Amino acid sequence: MPDRFEMTVPSDLANLARIAEFVTDAALRLGLTEQQAFEVQMATDEACANIVEHAYGLGVPGSIGVACEMEGDDLVVTIRDRGRPFNANQVPTPDVTGPLEDRRIGGLGLYFMRKLMDRVVFHHDAQGGNELRMYKRRSP
Amino acid sequence: MSEFAIHQGSGAAVVEVNGRLDALAAPQFDGALQAALQAGQGRVVVDLAGVGYLSSSCLRILLLGTRRARELAGDLKLCCLAPRVRQVLALAGFDLVFELWETRSQALAAFAPRDGSERVCTRA
Q1: ipTM of the assembly?
Q2: Domain limits at A121?
Q3: How far apart are CA B78 and CA B63, in angstroms?
Q4: What is the value of pTM for the model shown?
Q5: Which CATH superfamily groups domain B3-108?
Q6: Residue pairs between chains A and B whose CB atoms are closer than 8 Å
Q7: Ranges of residues in chain B whose predicted pLDDT is under 70
């Protein structure tokens, strides 16, 4: 069985469902539970939607690379793009307890990624572009 | 692709959703909610029985739709949530701000005034 799964797709919201299917399948093959695979799928979906909508921008051509592999007991999802760099520190933390009228609209996607995964690391360099690594511990 | 159907129920419009509610579906979902808000004069039930996945972009649409409904003196109620959709709502703390019902008929009945008397709003 392969221990690394990889795909590259054009930056387009229409490809989100394909990415979700790919990541769910890879996570299950790498031994994660159905629930964990769902959570990895959701974090990946939010990350890729951000890339299409903000890193490249809707309608701007570009590619998104997604890879899944084990590092020790962790499933690592690596997502690469060559869009605008993303500064996670500038994203406000959403209010998840206040009344509806006070809720801010932005920041939920990143909040989900951090809640659903054990570790989320953003990296940018001028040559390689953006690289996001998200870690999920496999249940023993 | 996701599909949206709008029905006129008794006392409220119903939006029936089928498919993934991801970022691709968000604009269409928004359009369907706006149409239902108009048809139901601000009173809308969103039936999520056919939805297995809800992303943050569609949560935002639900939040904006609920605000709009309340501006119109109505409300937006959700029904028939799959466990994972409920999990996403809970993660965002949206289970505290949305009214969630097990069935569509319960959600519709929640709009109806009881015994002809005025419905008392207990929401803060």
Answers
A1: 0.92
A2: 4-137
A3: 12
A4: 0.91
A5: STAS domain (3.30.750.24)
A6: 66
A7: 113-124
